[in-house]
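Quick start: read one record
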Amino acid sequence: MERCLLEIRGINELYHVYEGCRQANWDGFGAAPVSVRTFQSAYEFLEALPLGTPAPSIGAEPDGHITLEWHHSPRRSLSVGVSPESDLHYAAGWPAEKPAQKIIAQQIAAAAGKAHHPPHEPA
């Protein structure tokens, strides 16, 4: 049931954002359009989320990327930007809690290692 809610709420909201932002200047300030590739990348990301993941709020950025956001409170939030190339840019904020700090530090260290020694990327 939870997966169905994510699919319905997330996919419907993603489609509405795409429809409303697929033309250049959709914001009246010169925003880039959200492309079909960006829509597809965001759709694939949503489909890859595990069962039980809450549905995000979905919006578009002036650069044409799609943003997925989860807000619990002003101090607990996660934002993921999706590009047409399926690149993910994310930021998170939550209060420091000792057990969580260690887990987060380990995850950041693993991500930093991947950034420092990326797999071979095709030219």
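The longest strand covers residues 66-73.
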